[in-house]
Specification:
Length: about 90
């Protein structure tokens, strides 16, 4: 099973799990908002913000390097949010 990472290695040579990163951001987002009616929306926003990093091309970019911005990832989460909006 492939281990997806969120970022390149830090200066200690450690890789940050993408799943862990998305869950951490989602919980931070949920805790930032004071209106209980928005907590779930903020949580999902946190999950989706780096969703595009699950692309194999993006993982290859993180592991092997390349030109910054050559593998877009931000639009994937926005597209997924839009798809969820049309489902409801």
């Amino acid at each position: 099973m492939m281990k997806y990472i969120a970022h390149t290695e830090n200066n200690k040579g450690e890789k940050h799990s993408l799943k862990e990163h998305l869950l951490n951001v989602a919980h931070i987002m949920k805790n930032v908002v004071t209106n209980d009616g928005w907590k779930n929306i903020f949580f999902v926003t946190g999950l989706l913000h780096d969703f595009g990093k699950y692309q194999l091309d993006f993982q290859r970019y993180l592991l092997e390097g390349g030109r910054r911005g050559s593998v877009p990832h931000a639009s994937w989460g926005a597209a997924m949010a839009k798809k969820c909006e049309t489902i409801k």
